[in-house]
Amino acid sequence: MCLFCxxxxxxxxxxxxxxxxxxxxxxxxxxxxxxxxxxxxxxHVDSFDDVKPETMSGFTSFIQKVVKEVKIxxxxxxxxxxxxxxxxxxxxxxHFHILGGAKLKWGxxxxxxxxxxx
Length: 118
Ligand code: AMP
What we know:
The protein is of the alpha+beta class and 118 residues long. It has a domain at 28-79. 23% of the residues lie in helices and 21% in strands. A hairpin with a 7-residue loop joins β2 (23-27) and β3 (35-41). It is globular, with a radius of gyration of 15 Å. The chain starts with a helix and ends in an 18-residue tail after the last strand. It binds adenosine monophosphate (AMP). The site of adenosine monophosphate (AMP) has 12 residues, from loops.
């Protein structure tokens, strides 16, 4: 069973923010911003590459509820999902990073110089 399935099953503790029948949101253990939340589907999906559009419909509404719950909806936030090796995915269970609470910088992709990757 994967790490996030164990969190869903309460085999590994997490700091839950919001939960419904299908989705769970909890604080990232290694936050990269003042607010750093992970939102996951309770049923295992490897990554965004495998998710069904009908799951994304409910997932979108859930994420919108989460950002209201932690009051970053008005100030703005970023939603990211990493996919596979090049995307930097470390946990093989679909998750959206929800980042906010400060003006987020953009430009940490300098390790992937587009001039060397054509
Ligand atoms: P990714 O690199 O996109 O797969 O992101 C995985 C994220 O999971 C990282 O930001 C980790 O800090 C986070 N993470 C790993 N283990 C835990 C855990 N037990 N509880 C909360 N977040 C975790």
